[in-house]
């Protein structure tokens, strides 16, 4: 019988036993197998290659990555300043720890700094067999630095060939220099050379060979050769003009491993991996990390999104809800002004947060509008939220979204947007308000406080409904629906500390001058605030 734990942190023997029993039950019930790659590789202090690249690549493709660190390197964008091997018995210790417990699907190897480490790895893989082995024979990094002791370089061929690593491999992914070293110094200068090298490496035992041609003399396309035992496939991709290529080899091999762990066949896994690297290089081509000739790239497609240079880096402040302006394309069209001009005017008048509510905009136009409005908002330190469309918010890196009860669930939106974005949820009842809080909303919009013609068939909750929701809500509230100059003070005066402002559409945008209407409403709100103090 599984005893319920009244307090998970009351630590005595009996509760430990109960905890274990419950855990077994929970895992059995959950039964959600996670694809898992073990990376056996060296650490790159610069974060662009090695273990660090492997973890990021797997994470980006939705695969768990555990690690066995074989060496610690001191390196940056200038080169490799030092290599410090982890003692072999401790590499073995790590291998046993992970492989004996964690149900690894695929092992991917990178820097293997000694024959002893290769032997221990082969021994461990016999003791704990996995679904696939991806060998990136790291000897020469993309920058041309030798990541092994000279004696290792001498023994490189022996290391990979004689100690059974290559015969155990499902795929080996040498670059031109590594392929040449594996074949005892064979010269590789053409695509035909690469194909015959792939065949010769295949004779050493691996099931598939990918010879990477990134170093071929200046062709237009990047060409890799994939040999499946029968045929050489030329895999071409456009060459991205960038110096941020550090870690491409490790990343490619990790992506192959990740796709295999998800159940892919080999050629599709290689194709996805190549697409990933190409997309990441293109995304990262102009980022600047370090002063050396070869920088890292962004595996997670997020670094350019950081608000490093933006005036909006302060997170969500409930006081931003004070004068919440919501756009309406129909109204702005009626008054012959663009949404961008309308947003500008409302900020001039004192709007404290903007929501783009463009129900009829085509997606491409919506992205363009949102990008332009974001620039205006951020130059004034004002947050921009997108109504309904999480995809638009993601595409333009807006500050957040506002979601209704039948829009995307806030929890799903949170996983897509990340923890730093603002999520608002429309609520008409205390139950909805509590649920919004439980789902991670930052604020709720409550209405319609008064009847409105802006939103069809909208239920009016009145000031009493607003009061009930405000007193139940655990997050700040903004009131919405039929609010304008004439009644804003009555809304703000309901005496609920949780009510932080009013959200308005027609009172600002269905008027001739957006800036002066906003200014007047702002002044009403400031008067209410000053009386409240
Ligand atoms: C601040 C604020 N509150 C409520 C709403 C209404 O959102 P929703 O219920 O999803 O209705 P639509 O606006 O999508 O028609 C809002 N937009 N903003
Ligand atoms: C978009 C919207 N949501 C509402 C809700 O009750 O959730 S009322 C509303 C329309 C608000 O427009 P106006 O300020 O012109 O009345
Ligand atoms: Mg909505």
TrEMBL record:
Listed GO biological process terms: thiamine biosynthetic process; thiamine diphosphate biosynthetic process
Superkingdom of the source species: Eukaryota
Cofactor(s) in the UniProt record: Mg(2+)
Annotated signal peptide: none
UniProt GO molecular function: ATP binding; hydroxymethylpyrimidine kinase activity; metal ion binding; phosphomethylpyrimidine kinase activity; thiamine-phosphate diphosphorylase activity
Segments forming domain Pyridoxamine kinase/Phosphomethylpyrimidine kinase: 44-293
CDD domains: HMPP_kinase, TMP_TenI
Annotated Gene3D superfamilies: 3.40.1190.20, Aldolase class I
Keywords in alphabetical order: ATP-binding, Chloroplast, Kinase, Magnesium, Metal-binding, Multifunctional enzyme, Nucleotide-binding, Plastid, Thiamine biosynthesis, Transferase, Transit peptide
UniProt protein name: Thiamine-phosphate pyrophosphorylase
């Amino acid at each position: 019988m599984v005893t319920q734990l009244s307090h998970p942190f009351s630590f005595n023997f009996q509760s430990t036993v109960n905890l274990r029993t419950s855990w077994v039950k929970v895992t059995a019930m959950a039964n959600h197998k996670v694809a898992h790659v073990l990376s056996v590789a060296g650490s790159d202090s610069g974060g662009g290659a090695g273990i660090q690249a492997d973890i990021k690549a797997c994470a980006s493709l939705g695969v768990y990555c555990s690690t066995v660190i074989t060496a610690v390197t001191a390196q940056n964008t200038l080169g490799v300043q030092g290599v410090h091997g982890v003692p072999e018995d401790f590499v073995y210790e790590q291998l046993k720890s992970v492989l004996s417990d964690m149900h690894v699907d695929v092992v991917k190897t990178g820097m293997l700094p000694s024959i002893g480490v290769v032997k221990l790895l082969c021994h461990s893989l016999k003791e704990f067999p996995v679904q696939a082995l991806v060998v990136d024979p790291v000897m020469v990094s993309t920058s041309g630095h030798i990541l092994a002791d000279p004696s290792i370089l001498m023994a490189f061929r022996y290391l990979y060939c004689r100690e059974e690593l290559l015969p155990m491999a499902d795929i080996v992914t040498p670059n031109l220099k590594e392929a040449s070293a594996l074949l005892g110094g064979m010269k590789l200068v053409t695509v035909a050379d690469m194909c015959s090298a792939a065949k010769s490496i295949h004779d050493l035992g691996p099931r598939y060979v990918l010879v990477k041609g990134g170093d071929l003399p200046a062709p237009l396309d990047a060409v890799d050769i994939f040999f499946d035992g029968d045929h050489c496939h030329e895999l071409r991709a456009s060459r991205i003009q960038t110096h941020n290529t550090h870690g491409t080899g490790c990343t490619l091999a990790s992506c192959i491993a990740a796709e295999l762990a998800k159940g892919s066949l080999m050629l599709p896994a290689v194709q996805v991996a190549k697409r990933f690297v190409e997309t990441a290089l293109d995304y990262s081509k102009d980022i600047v990390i370090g002063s050396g000739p070869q920088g890292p790239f962004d595996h997670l497609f997020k670094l350019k999104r950081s608000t490093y240079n933006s005036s909006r880096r302060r997170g969500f402040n409930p006081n931003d809800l004070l004068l919440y302006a919501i756009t309406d394309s129909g109204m702005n069209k009626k008054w012959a002004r663009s949404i961008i001009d309308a947003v500008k005017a409302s900020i001039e008048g004192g709007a404290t947060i903007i929501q783009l509510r463009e129900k009829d905009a085509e997606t491409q136009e919506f992205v363009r509008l949102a990008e332009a409005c974001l620039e205006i908002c951020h130059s004034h330190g004002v947050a921009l939220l997108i109504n309904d469309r999480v995809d638009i918010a993601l595409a333009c890196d807006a500050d957040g979204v506002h979601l209704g009860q039948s829009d995307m669930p806030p929890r799903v939106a949170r996983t897509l947007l990340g923890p730093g974005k603002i999520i608002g949820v429309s609520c008409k009842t205390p139950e909805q308000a509590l649920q919004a809080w439980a789902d991670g909303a930052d604020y709720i919009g409550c209405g319609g406080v008064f009847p409105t013609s802006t939103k069809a068939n909208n239920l009016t909750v009145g000031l009493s409904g607003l009061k009930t929701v405000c007193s139940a809500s655990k997050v700040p509230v903004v009131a919405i629906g039929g609010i304008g100059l004439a009644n804003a003070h009555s809304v703000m005066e309901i005496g609920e500390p949780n009510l932080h402002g009013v959200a308005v559409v027609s009172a600002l945008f269905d008027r001739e001058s957006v800036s002066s209407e906003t200014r007047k409403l702002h002044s009403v709100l400031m008067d209410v605030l000053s009386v409240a103090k």
